[in-house]
Design a protein that fits this description.
alpha+beta; 3 domains; four-stranded mixed β-sheet; 50% helix; hydrolase; Recombination-promoting nuclease RpnA; EC 3.1.21.-; Transposase_31; double-stranded DNA endonuclease activity
Length: 311
């Protein structure tokens, strides 16, 4: 190991000299790159991004140069000190390059510098490691196609509502997310349920996963005194036999967000089927919000006489 470290140190000592570094880079950089660079601006960066457990195996040199149009470009050089090639070297290069780019990332819309990795290999066996990141994947061509280009953008902001409504069940999600910033959340619910009447049956088949989650999603935008109004809007558009189930969802939302409990004298624990005292407190709170007696009976399991006694 000591001998290899001496070899490694020799390469680093020599290439740390600006004259030697300029000669090395001028010889090995691609012509398309060299024609853009101002070699008189070359300097060695001090930062090291090699991990602690690799410092005895790899020695990194980072050179910075300005382009001829005064934009900065970084050349990242790894000196391979192993006697055999490392299979994951190209993966490590990418990781180090991203660490290098990380220090240039700002909140402003600035551009990142270019990074060109170079590996100087001096082992005593042929170099046969993958030369790029894509060759490390089981499907290199697909990996480069899927991961090397633009990411897929689902732009709801610019997507017309008519296009969204054509997507049936999926359209419910896209429509609601697009318009979630509306000030009048009750009007949004009315419009949403009118536009997706045919999709409600699809949602029913899946246990109303969209309706239930939309209730949770829009809750923070609704005051407590508008909750009974929302319940009536939803009940109007759902099959009658599903009304009780959705009402329980609304009550669960109250519990999850802590809104209903905040109006009780003490914190209620357990489920809706809990102690009678807790059910009476829930019924009292719902009466104050304007819920119908029949709806409170469905939700709490209390008898009409219990609720009328509260009144």
């Amino acid at each position: 190991m000591t001998g290899r470290l001496k070899h490694d140190g020799l390469a680093k000592r020599i290439l740390s000299d600006p004259i030697a570094a300029q000669e090395f880079l001028n010889h090995y950089l691609p012509e398309s790159c060299k024609s853009l660079l101002d070699f008189t601006t070359l300097k060695i960066e001090k930062e090291s991004f090699v991990e602690d457990d690799l410092k005895q195996k790899l020695s990194d040199l980072i050179f910075s140069m300005k382009m001829k149009d005064n934009k900065e470009v970084f050349i990242y050089t790894l000196i391979e000190a192993e006697v055999s090639p490392k299979y994951w070297l190209s993966f490590k290069l990418w990781k180090y390059m991203f660490l290098l780019l990380e220090r240039h990332k700002t909140k402003k819309k600035s551009k990142l510098p270019l990074v060109l990795p170079i590996v100087l290999y001096h082992g005593n066996s042929p170099f046969n490691s993958p030369r790029n990141l894509w060759d490390l994947f089981s499907h290199p061509i697909l990996a480069k196609e899927f991961m090397g280009g633009d990411y897929q953008l689902v732009d709801l902001f610019s997507m017309p509502d008519e296009e969204i409504k054509q997507k049936a069940h999926l359209g419910m999600l896209e429509y609601f997310m697009k318009h979630i910033y509306a000030r009048d959340m009750l009007a949004l619910w009315e419009k949403f349920l009118d536009n997706f009447k045919s999709c409600i049956l699809l949602d029913k088949e899946k246990g109303y996963i969209y309706i239930r989650n939309f209730l949770w999603y829009s809750d923070s935008k609704l005051s407590e005194d508008t909750q009974p109004v929302l319940e009536k809007i939803i009940s109007k558009h759902l099959p009658r036999e599903d009304k009780e189930d959705i009402m329980r969802t609304i009550a669960q939302k109250y519990r999850d967000e802590g809104k209903l409990q905040g109006k009780l004298e003490g914190k209620l624990e357990g489920k809706l089927e809990g102690k009678l005292e807790g059910k009476l407190e829930i019924a009292k709170s719902m009466l104050q919000k304007g819920y119908y007696i029949e709806d409170i009976m469905l939700l709490t399991g209390l008898s009409r006489s219990h609720i009328e006694n509260i009144m």
